[in-house]
Design brief:
The complex is a heterotrimer of chains A (307), B (369) and C (369). By secondary structure, chain A is mainly α. In chain A, 69% of the residues lie in helices and 2% in strands. A two-stranded antiparallel sheet of chain A has the order 1-2. The longest helix of chain B has 35 residues. Chain B is globular and about 70 Å long. The chains are: A mainly alpha (307), B mainly alpha (369), C alpha/beta (369).
């Protein structure tokens, strides 16, 4: 545990933070990319994330297997996504509003059922040590990478390929760009959107399980500090691209590590402002990447928020 | 809204009166039906958990509305909720979904606390309106900025307002624990306590502060603005179809910025009353989540400022009963959040029946027959 | 002016209403005996602040003739005022323990005058003459516990750097940080303590990041002062650092690396106050106690603790128990060089000056703003 690395601690902590903190953002935003590509927006992923964190932790504790927890979280997220997808398929039902309602419901249910699981200790997800080549404990710690992070990275590539090269991807894009065109091709847009939202929900659930089962690795009512919501914002500035979403999540994780890292090298003034860095950063990027006409490049044309 | 009165009016023809009423009845009946559905679904949830829903709802009634104390409790909670709901409902007229009212509340509170510290020696008649104005101004600027970003940069207002709420809370913490901190506020960093003369007191006769009356007035004022002025009319057109509004030469940008700012000003005012009537200084307790409950209320009230009043009372009553339910039924504190979630989902899902519950057509069909 | 709303007559109506409720099969409030209400700001099983109080409440539950009612997650807003009044009006509570610091001013001070027959005992507050007589405050000298933590940490650190994850730079927290470092410096004056403020009492991700940042900076013994230390303890242990507990016993979370911990022992305080109330005896308005009085206790030393550490820990603990032990001894400067205790000046745990501490002592890396 020795070795003072001075100011290098800041960039190193940010790399470590990017890897540690980004995974929930990554999963939620990858899921939301797919959902939004189909022309729907699900703002309720924050609730799904929190419920996934609870369900994952509870199941991991009860079964003794962290992976069972991840499965449970994905399933719970899938159900929330299905509910969102089905409700929004009813005519005149607003997807943004339903998202807000499900955020409330998901969080409420998670806290309701999560009470007995605040205290127990559930098994953690395993991590892979990619920092074996270094003698510095700081480097080793920063590069202790969770399997889910790698899965997420692979998923980003796979989804990008899927969107571009496969029939499923084409279907999604058609539905997202025009319901009428989709119908003309014999595709049922409602069904595609329900499935896309369910998929997004499942990924958000996994993102939640990462929070409770790896980092910070415990279930409590303050487990999420808005990760689910921010991830939805990240999708917009990732321009609905899975690869961009990966980098956006990394950037955001790194910004989140800035506050504590600066304090550890002696920059101690105004830490609240440093803690707000991720939010400010997202807002700035949103402002820069939006355009007056509202017609964002790459935006699915059926998406309510860009209309 | 005032259906009962009009029905009893001596009718030229009962139907002639009923038809226009029936057209509006849907706006009341549908949310009511959805509310009942939400309550019923939650009752089922309780039954599945082996809890008695009858006991639950009786306790909610008891602690929210059953006694004089319950009413005090409910009304005292309602004031910030009413103003927070207006922050959602007013921009909603333009089709905007603003969910970051919490940010305007905390900044309004900080502004009130900060001004109060500076204006300590001033006469209350000048200082108090200045504090309230300052709070409304900062709230208006904050949420107005969301509207401006939307108009000038096309930034989605829902997400921007939420991000800004997080930023506002960080700013509040920074100010309250840094530049604005009163050195005497030891273990609870706060701005300097307001002079007694600058505190907002209770209304005569019951222990609910004046903020409630102001909130009622704000709801009524917002209703008049939206329903009875050309400005409100233009806003509704712009909310329905921006292109059409622009073609008609309506000042869409001014409307968007103005309405978001007005909503934000209401939320800022809520912060003012929290500081001057409840806390006596600005501190981290300002971020109490009223802004988020306000979203639910506004949607339940279908963004009608008058309907916000009964809905906010209902929600405040439900929250007021949370403690008793927790203590008597051994249900966790999140129970009320779950109930709110059920109601919220039911209300939104019910929108799908809008227009299908056409009493007007049913009545006129009767006429023809 | 608020008091007159709840006149005697109204209160009787309330009771009658409740009797009616009981007839409908509602869980009735306790009949006879003493009802004691506990109010928590967070969940009861947080491995921390609230759990420590809930353990005290559990000891009260075991007492004859006492009914305990509890409510958790009660915000430091109007909420807590309503919860107190609800416990009094609906459950007949006559002794209340609102346990969070932020409940005191203004909330308890607001409600207490309305109910002169109810006793309000607050944890951490500074009751001063002139405040309502039915209000009192109690607290424990837990800084001594952090000093003992520091002694063990001083023996166990090999990097000569120890770490502290803190919520906010307020006197109670600063005293703990300073005590932790001074304990370690009693072993080796070269040791430094890095502190990182998370800014929130409960914020899991920030606590984990702060702990990692401390480990990255080379700290190899870590403790904390946040509401729920679970995340800090687990994260520090995962980094291979030794941990010292706070609030409650966290040894189960890191059996090998847990050295010891500074724990509250509220059972002593609560059972004593309840017994006095039952006997109709007065309770002093200002109650303080430390290790000797059984207000705080240390977790059993963990398996990693060396013999040398154990010996010094036990010796100092015995000295503290004997009384008149001072942690802050001159000459002592703060970490920006200002003298805080001249040569020959000492502050005992009982000195009220310590309750307004606003500095970090020399050797602590961090700042108070």
């Amino acid at each position: 545990m020795n070795g003072d690395i001075g100011l290098w601690a800041v960039p190193l902590a940010m790399i470590g933070g990017a890897i540690r903190v980004s995974t929930p953002f990554l999963f939620v935003s990858l899921g939301e990319v797919i959902t939004e590509r189909s022309g729907r927006i699900n703002l309720g992923l924050e609730g799904t994330l929190v419920f996934g964190a609870m369900a994952g932790y509870a199941l991991a504790y009860l079964t003794g297997s962290a992976w069972a927890g991840v499965g449970a979280a994905a399933l719970a997220g899938l159900l929330f996504g299905l509910v969102h997808g089905l409700l929004c398929s009813l005519p005149k039902v607003n997807d943004i509003a339903i998202g807000i309602a499900l955020m409330l419901l998901g969080t409420g249910l998670a806290f309701f059922f999560g009470k007995p699981f605040i205290q127990p200790v559930a098994p953690d997800l395993p991590a892979i040590n990619l920092g074996w080549w270094s003698d510095l404990p700081q480097v080793q710690a920063a590069l202790r990478v969770n399997v889910l992070f790698l899965v997420g990275a692979a998923l980003a590539v796979a989804l990008a390929w899927m969107l571009r090269k496969t029939r499923i991807g084409l279907t999604l894009r058609v539905v997202g760009d025009s319901s009428d065109a989709a119908r003309a091709l014999g595709i049922r847009p409602a069904r595609v959107r329900i499935l896309a939202t369910a998929f997004g929900g499942a990924l958000a659930g996994i993102g939640g399980a990462y929070l409770s089962l790896f980092y910070p690795g415990s279930w409590n009512e303050g487990i999420s500090s808005g990760q689910g919501l921010i991830a939805v914002a990240l999708v917009i500035f990732a321009r609905w691209s899975p690869i961009n979403a990966f980098f956006a999540a990394l950037l955001f994780g790194a910004a989140g590590a800035l506050g504590p890292a600066l304090q550890s090298v002696g920059v101690t003034q105004g830490y609240y402002l440093f803690y707000a860095a991720p939010f400010v950063l997202t807002l700035i990027v949103l402002v820069l990447s939006s355009s007056k006409s509202g017609a964002l490049t790459g935006a699915p044309r059926e998406l309510s928020i860009t209309k | 809204m005032s259906a009962g009165v009009e029905i009893t009016a001596p009718a030229r023809s009962a139907r002639a009166w009923l038809v226009p009423l029936a057209g509006r009845a849907e706006g009341v009946l549908l949310p009511l039906a959805a509310l009942v559905t939400g309550f019923a679904a939650f009752a089922l949830f309780l039954v599945l958990l082996g809890k008695n829903p009858w006991t639950f709802y009786t306790l909610v009634y008891q602690a929210g509305f059953g006694t004089g104390f319950s009413w005090t409790n409910t009304l005292a909670r309602a004031a910030p909720l009413l103003l927070a709901a207006l922050c959602v409902a007013i921009p909603a007229r333009l089709g905007l979904v603003v969910i970051g009212g919490e940010g305007a509340i905390v900044l309004g509170g900080v502004m009130a606390g900060g001004l109060g510290a500076v204006l300590g020696g001033w006469p209350a008649l000048i200082a108090m309106p200045l504090m309230a104005l300052g709070a409304a101004l900062i709230g208006g600027l904050w949420i107005g900025a969301v509207g401006a970003l939307r108009q000038w940069r096309g930034v989605n207002e829902t997400i921007a307002s939420l991000l800004m709420a997080y930023i506002a809370i960080a700013l509040m913490n920074h100010l309250v624990e840094g530049p604005l901190r009163d050195a005497a506020s030891l273990n609870k960093p706060s701005t300097a306590p307001l002079a007694e003369a600058l505190r907002v007191g209770d209304m005569p006769g019951f222990s609910v502060h004046w903020g409630l009356a102001v909130a009622f007035l704000a709801c009524i004022g917002a209703w008049v603005l939206i329903e009875r002025t050309t400005l409100g009319f233009s806003a509704r057109i712009a909310g329905g179809n921006v292109r059409a509004a622009q073609v008609q030469g309506l000042p869409v940008t001014k409307l968007v910025v103005g309405f978001t700012a007005l909503g934000g000003a209401c939320a800022g005012l809520a912060g003012y009353f929290e500081v001057s009537a409840v806390h006596g200084s600005a501190n981290a307790s300002l971020a109490a989540g009223y802004g988020y409950t306000g979203i639910l209320i506004a949607f339940l009230a279908r963004h009608n400022p008058l309907a916000i009043i009964p809905v906010a009372l209902l929600l405040a009553g439900i929250e007021a009963s949370s403690g008793l339910v927790q203590r008597r039924m051994e249900l966790p504190d999140a129970t009320m959040t779950v109930l709110q979630g059920f109601i919220f989902v039911a209300i939104l899902a019910s929108e799908t029946f809008t227009g299908r519950l056409d009493l007007t057509r049913w009545l006129s069909r009767g006429e023809r027959a | 002016m608020a008091a007159d709303f709840l006149t005697r007559r109204r209160f009787l109506t309330t009771s009658a209403g409740l009797a009616g409720a009981a007839a409908m099969g509602l869980p009735a409030r306790a009949q006879g005996g003493l009802t004691v209400g506990f109010i928590y700001v967070g969940p009861r099983d947080d491995y921390g602040y609230n759990q420590a109080h809930a353990q005290g409440a559990a000891a009260v539950k075991a007492m004859e003739g006492v009914t305990v009612i509890e409510e958790e997650n009660v915000a430091e807003t109007q909420d807590v005022q309503q919860t107190m009044e609800s416990m009094i009006n609906f459950d007949g509570a006559s002794l209340l323990f609102p346990t969070s610091f932020g409940y005191f001013d203004p909330h308890i001070l607001e409600v207490a005058p309305k109910y002169p027959d109810v006793r309000f005992k607050h944890c951490g507050g500074l009751w001063t003459p002139g405040m309502p007589e039915n209000v009192g405050s109690y607290f424990g000298y837990i800084g001594m516990g952090q000093y003992l933590n520091g002694i063990v940490a001083g023996h166990m650190t090999s990097s000569k750097k120890i770490g502290f994850v803190a919520a906010k730079p307020i006197p109670q927290v600063l005293l703990n940080i300073n005590s932790f470092l001074l304990g370690a410096r009693a072993v080796d004056p070269e040791i430094t303590c890095q502190v990182i403020f998370t800014g929130e009492w409960s914020m899991a991700v920030k606590e984990a990041e702060a702990t990692n940042a401390l480990a990255d900076a080379g700290a190899d013994v870590i403790t904390c002062h946040v509401d729920g230390p679970k995340v800090v303890i687990e994260t520090a242990a995962a980094r291979g650092a030794y941990v010292c507990g706070y609030h409650a016993d966290q040894s189960a979370l890191a059996p090998e690396l847990y050295l010891t911990g500074a724990e509250w022992n509220w059972a002593t305080v609560y059972t004593d106050m309840v017994a006095k109330t039952l006997a109709g005896e007065p309770i002093p308005n200002f109650v303080r106690g430390g290790l000797a009085e059984g207000f705080i206790k240390m977790s059993p030393l963990g398996p990693a603790v060396t013999d040398a550490a154990r010996a010094q820990f036990e010796a100092v603990q015995a000295e503290i128990m004997a009384g008149d032990y001072a942690v802050i001894n001159g000459p002592l400067a703060d970490n920006s060089g200002n003298v805080i205790a001249a040569d020959g000046v000492s502050y005992l745990e009982t000195d009220v000056e310590l309750e307004s501490m606003d500095y970090l002592v020399d050797g602590v890396i961090g700042s108070t703003s």
